[in-house]
Amino acid sequence: MASNLKKYIRTIPDFPHAGIQFRDITTLFNNSKGLRETVDQMADAMAIHNFDQVAGLEARGFMLGAALAYRLELGFTMIRKKGKLPGKTISQDYNLEYGEATLEIHDDAIESGQKVLLFDDLIATGGTAEAGINLIERLGGKVEMAAFIIDLPELGGRKKIESLGIPTYVLCEFDGL
Amino acid sequence: MASNLKKYIRTIPDFPHAGIQFRDITTLFNNSKGLRETVDQMADAMAIHNFDQVAGLEARGFMLGAALAYRLELGFTMIRKKGKLPGKTISQDYNLEYGEATLEIHDDAIESGQKVLLFDDLIATGGTAEAGINLIERLGGKVEMAAFIIDLPELGGRKKIESLGIPTYVLCEFDGL
After folding, report:
1. What is the ipTM of this complex?
2. pTM (predicted TM-score)
């Protein structure tokens, strides 16, 4: 694990709620070396696989997801919040800390049998990633791996995704919420 | 202008409102050649400039914006909708077709004197781009250029941005709304 990236990540206390230590990747992307090392480390780790497509979760997953797809010479698929995609979609509800939310994917974004790398900036409880996996699999795609810049191991998301039979990869971990 | 990219862009009628021909870049990014050509054409055109930073507008501007920053070995700054950025921000209201919206940037994202490339996927009336330019300039940055994948010339956004003294660059144009 490439923990040297942690120095670029800022921690903001009490965002979005009191008691949450928010791990802020804007400072990582804002730094030219941070952005380059993040894309290169992730792309180098993923290059041994044979994906057909990268899928990224709105909105922070769009940045590294698209840069990674470019580096790996793959296409990039957006998984968006409800109502943002203009074409025909399928949707998946999932639970948030308070209430529910819905993700959508274009119904022609993934071809049946395609091997997909799912990407997001951070995995916490894994609820969003699981909804994204469901969308890809409902289109006939196979999520070969789920990758994240940051894991918060205490929240158990990575274990949850691996219990679905999907290998995961992360660049760094933060303890404590 | 690299109009060969137009073949990757899908048009969706009546989204988000009746009468609008929505130019859908999801099909461009979904295609590995489309993504690669878009990043490479934009990066090649921008490489003669000497930017310090790329800034992208939420959310579709995050994809090519981050990939472009990676290719140009620059940092990437997110300009987000209200309430999404965790740190201290400054904000800028702007007019939409119906009502108002607000963009924000972290107050330490741009250093005074930095030369910034502003990027979004599409320019229509230019209201969002103008709000992004205001944010960057209020932090002391200089927007050296504003670049877009798609221009809708009939809506006049490009002329508006150039009337502010900021050169623009686009990869393709679509006539008609």
Report:
1. 0.95
2. 0.96
